[in-house]
Amino acid sequence: MAEAVRLADLEGVGGLSMRRLAGALGAGAMSLYYYVASKEELLDAMIDVVFEEIELPPEETDWQSAMRRRAISARQVLGRHPWAIGLMESRTSPGPANLRHREAVTACLRRAGFPVLMATHANWLLDSYVYGFALQEASLPFDTADGFADMAEDVFLPQLPPDEFPYLNESAAVLAAAGYDPAEEFTFGLDLVLAALEPLRVPK
């Protein structure tokens, strides 16, 4: 399974096939069917590996801290495995790590006082935020504050004449000079989501 995940990390999941995986392993394609019955079963197992890497919300802390740690971990894991972003919610035969993760998240929210329906709303909202941010982050043409500053100065600003785009020009210039790091947007938005959810629970 590790080799399948490695290939997907390098090449994406679109070109992954049983034949491609067998070639990378130096085995016959048919021999893989001894371990997995189909590519869908292979994807189930690969997604389970991804869920296994995500930190479960710890039980020894408050719900916001627990869900914050879990969300930050998920974002980091999806940064390593961007091919998985669109598959995390698509599996109809989830593996044990997938189910353990979902049970732990639901338990954290329910113990915090969220009724079943509200816990479901909270779970959807948090996952949508994490997956959406990870997807957007994976498509950025830079991955550091220095990279953003270089892009702003060399690429963005020349396309933003101040007489035509005064606010965009100002934003690009100020952010580049300030050492702005887009990666910090994740925790900013996450904390807003968690704060908005707090009044919706019914503490026991």
Automatic annotation (TrEMBL):
DNA-binding region: 17-36
GO BP field: negative regulation of DNA-templated transcription; response to antibiotic
Ranges of residues in domain HTH tetR-type: 1-54
Highest taxon of the lineage: Bacteria
MF (Gene Ontology): DNA-binding transcription factor activity; transcription cis-regulatory region binding
Pfam families per UniProt: TetR_C_1 (PF02909), TetR_N (PF00440)
Keywords noted in UniProt: DNA-binding, Repressor, Transcription, Transcription regulation
Residues in the signal sequence: none
Protein name: TetR family transcriptional regulator
